[in-house]
């Protein structure tokens, strides 16, 4: 009887075991750690099945595993039995399946997820999201480029899922989106407390060429270089250092972009309020050259007040020279105030006005007809330029080089660097021109020689040369030529050979040409004039008297 009962119980247990649902491979099942040995945890997953899992599968990246005998865990059943009769299970795959379910829900709800950066890969980092591995692009780590990600490694922090594909096993996350959201909330809170015109304290976070970023307690404002001081600032580092606490004024707030413009000089007294009173027109002041450009030089009169010396106001004599060859940066110079424009905050200065006009000085010390000496600076097609005292030049025109030679020929006798003498002809201070004359050094010989000679005068000349076409004569050192046709009234006597060099001859002046510096002379004109005079005094040929009789009477009258 007892044996029949035990057989029935065995059959019932056997039937129960057949009817028991064996867990499906590829599913997550619960198990209990029954032993830990050789770096592995032995887990009883029920159904008369046990399996082994490496302890490292229970640890988060960078952390030690925290498991002990008796702990209940979920594992992924990969196979019900292997060659050793053990179940093939995985804690990591169970965590991954669990994580994917959780992450898909978070992605659908646009919720944040917690994870830890545990590795570096090409283009970014790997993040453990509690069992699932995600990719964090380098551009999504922070709002600014991160040079050293070391402090972020292994640190649990929130992330935003940007994209995920369970079939491919891809997840892309962003840390930057979380920071920007937090930053936006913080900025909105800080900006809500600020108003344009407020004076606040801030810390210099970054310095660039165009300004500095100042942290106002969670929100950054830009302090532009032009708003740092009233004076010219070449680079913000001249005034600020990173980490320094400064007092600034809120100039402008853009509610839409959350951008804040700051200023430091607005908290200081504007030196331009007193410029007109301190720097009256035509007053002379000492300043420092702060900047040199192609069109002039900027001179600082005081901190915050600069004026421009235009290149045309730098030198009386150096017209086409770069300002850098006249003044140098940081040089102390004397300048004159020429104009003030308070609206545009501009001061026009003059450098040359602090010195006397060299043309005025020359005109005072060298009146007309004064003799000067200088070096030939330049030779042009229209004359010579002579260097004069005061670093100025005077010009000798071609027509003022020589009395006797054409200007084009006379200029060939001069070379650059020659030291020559000349006479001042004219000084035009307004046009900055000085006219000189070399030929006037010995006076006007022609004017001196013919000063009392007029057309029709009878003068005595000396024959100096005999030529086929006439004779060359000299009067008071001035050469003239009498043509053959003017040698006598009678054609038979118009022979040059009847004269000899050294002969003295009376001639009549027919022309005085000051331009060509020539006298027109004629023996024939003299004889005709004498004949007319004799006829008038001693009778007419029409009365029956012969010309010989009349001339004879005239000669006797002269005797």
From TrEMBL:
SMART domains: S1 (SM00316). One of its GO terms (cellular component) is cytosolic small ribosomal subunit. InterPro entries: NA-bd_OB-fold, Ribos_protein_bS1-like, Ribosomal_bS1, Ribosomal_protein_S1-like, S1_domain. Keywords: Repeat, Ribonucleoprotein, Ribosomal protein, RNA-binding. The keyword Chloroplast does not apply. It comes from the Bacteria. GO terms for molecular function: mRNA binding; structural constituent of ribosome. Pfam families: S1. Residues 26-92, 110-176, 197-265, 282-352, 369-439, 456-524 form the S1 motif domain. The keyword Electron transport does not apply. GO terms for biological process: translation. Transmembrane segments: none annotated. Binds mRNA; thus facilitating recognition of the initiation point. It is needed to translate mRNA with a short Shine-Dalgarno (SD) purine-rich sequence. Belongs to the bacterial ribosomal protein bS1 family. This is 30S ribosomal protein S1. It comes from Cognatishimia activa. The lineage of its organism: Bacteria, Pseudomonadati, Pseudomonadota, Alphaproteobacteria, Rhodobacterales. The gene is rpsA.
